[in-house]
TrEMBL record:
Family: Belongs to the trimethylamine methyltransferase family.
GO biological process, one term: methylation
The keyword Protease is assigned to this record: no
InterPro entries in UniProt: MttB-like_sf, MTTB_MeTrfase
Keyword field: Methyltransferase, Transferase
Protein name: Methyltransferase
Region of interest called Disordered, as start-end residue ranges on this chain: 1-24
Native species: Aminobacter aganoensis
GO molecular function: methyltransferase activity
Keyword Transferase: yes
Any one Pfam family match given in the protein's UniProt record, by short name: MTTB
């Protein structure tokens, strides 16, 4: 009998089948379906024109001691912190932003290239709480951070580890950046994310990166991506500009991301919100090019609306889907790499609400071919908490997206017809050779058994199944190889910088 892995296509398809079933790393998703364009050319231009008009007439504030002077030096109209930028100047500046960005990993086999129709994924970001294994919502700790870094390392559809997977509140806030960067470096060999909360945090990330890869390599290659947020509406604050400058000078990627909450930080207008996203993100990217021409910069899009009843953010609602479609179309036109936010949910537990909100959130950015999806696994409570159960469930949902966004195969149709002729009317296909060597996708975490079997096996719901899988994966975690000297060097750096920071005797 043919084995399940002996599908058409030889070794490549066998590797793909193995990846689908096991914990083998999947590369960035290669989106084989056409990108969806929601606007005609005239309306696309109107969105861009509104964004440029915002920057020319209203401007954007760079609340930083040096940035306005730097903007004036390239020809912007500057009044205090307010910077007004004409369309031609902005477009000229972003011409040098790379259209593809490679994030080099400690293990070269994990290196990821972003851009075009490729999509990579990283976990949730920024959670100060964890929905723990005992179903109790707790403050995030260093142990939680390490656990999620381990799960992200094992997750076959997560290509980029780290970021603020869980904010370790049992670590002094002045030292947290060392652990947010250092732990993923030690526990995983995938690309990672940098810290941006201060000049110290950004500089230490660069130094850690140089320690791992070497100063010369870091200066000519990108090894870390860092999230810098514009304070919507229309403010780049000093902390974010500092981080943007430090990473751009070091040739490391900045993800210039407005945080739109429609109705609160932007007008109650889908198109108006998109214009603000475009205006804010492009100014950050343009500034990176003033600092270092050709520095890697990524267009960031976080699109949310708020409930006019409570003021709470809404996720899985229709307008953010449309915003991602519109923004994606504009960004593809500009030839930029862009990120979106993933399987969002405001649900407090991984329940039905969490499921439908998360899946609804995916369609806009997937159809628009976003290149990096942050918040793609584990997020509940609108990002205030991360769930072990939802993390592993989301990883499988991403795996399903891999199957959706590829072309159906046509090269076995002769065999299909032969099988149909053989079976004939009224027959079945279960025992046929074509059936034995092909299979539809079977989600591992979904229960398709009979009611009686489900009952006899403990009546476990999806949340419990996810918890059990997360526990199993943590038990099975094996750290990737790392040179003993490098491990010691990272640990020594973290210890030394901790002493210096706590004593107040340190460089910014």
């Amino acid at each position: 009998m043919d084995s399940p892995t002996s599908r058409r296509g030889g070794a490549a398809n066998r590797r793909e089948a193995l990846a689908r079933r096991g914990n083998v790393q999947r590369p960035a998703l290669q989106n084989e379906l056409p990108a969806y364009s929601i606007l005609n050319d005239e309306r696309s231009e109107r969105v861009l024109e509104l964004a440029f008009t915002i920057l020319e007439k209203i401007g954007i504030e760079f609340r930083h001691p040096e940035a306005p002077r730097i903007w004036r030096g390239v020809g912007a109209d500057v009044d205090g912190a307010r910077v007004r930028i004409k369309r031609d100047l902005l477009l000229k500046l972003i011409e040098t932003v790379p259209s593809e960005i490679t994030l080099n990993a400690r293990n070269p086999e994990r290196t990821v290239t972003l851009g075009g129709p490729r999509t990579a994924f990283s976990g949730s970001y920024g959670a100060p709480h964890v929905l723990d294994f005992d179903n109790v919502r707790k403050s995030s700790t260093l142990e939680h951070l390490r656990n999620f870094a381990k799960l992200a390392h094992q997750a076959k559809t997560i290509q980029i580890n780290g970021g603020v997977l869980a904010e370790p509140q049992d670590v002094d806030v002045r030292l947290r950046h060392l652990y947010l960067v250092g732990e993923p470096l030690l526990l995983s060999d995938k690309p990672y994310m940098g810290a941006v909360t201060s000049r110290t945090a950004a500089n230490d990330t660069v130094k850690l990166s140089q320690l791992v890869f070497g100063e010369e390599f870091v200066d000519t290659n990108t090894v870390v991506g860092s999230l810098v947020n514009c304070n919507t509406p229309l403010v780049w604050d000093e902390t974010m500009v500092n981080a943007l400058e430090i990473y751009s000078r070091a040739n490391q990627a900045v993800i210039c991301t407005p945080f739109i909450m429609g109705g609160a930080s932007s007008p109650v207008s889908t198109v108006g919100a998109c214009a603000m996203i475009i205006a804010e993100a492009l100014t950050g990217m343009a500034y990176s090019q003033i600092i270092r021409k050709g520095a890697p910069a990524i267009f960031g899009c976080v699109a949310q609306t708020i409930s006019m009843k409570s003021g709470a953010p809404l996720q899985g609602s229709p307008e953010p889907v449309l915003m991602n479609l519109i923004v994606g179309q504009i960004v593809r036109k500009l030839g930029l790499v862009w990120r979106a936010s993933g399987l969002w949910s405001t649900a407090k537990v991984p329940d039905m609400q969490a499921g439908y909100e998360s899946i609804m959130s995916t369609w806009g950015y997937m159809l628009a071919q976003a290149n990096w999806i942050i918040h793609s696994a584990g997020m509940v409570e609108g990002g205030l908490a991360i769930s072990y159960s939802k993390f592993v469930q989301d990883v499988e949902q991403i795996d399903i997206l891999y199957e959706i966004f590829k072309q159906p195969k046509f090269d076995d149709l002769d065999e299909v017809l032969e099988t149909l002729i053989k079976v004939g009317p009224g027959g079945h296909f279960l025992g046929e050779a074509h059936t034995r060597k092909n299979a539809f996708y079977i989600p591992e975490l979904s229960d398709a058994n009979s009611y009686e079997q489900w009952r006899d096996e403990g009546r476990r719901d999806a949340h419990q199944v996810g918890l059990d899988r997360a526990r199993k994966q943590l038990d099975e975690y094996q750290a990737p190889p790392i040179d003993d000297g490098l491990r010691d060097s990272i640990g020594d750096f973290m210890a030394r910088r901790s002493r210096e920071i706590l004593s107040g005797d340190f460089e910014q």
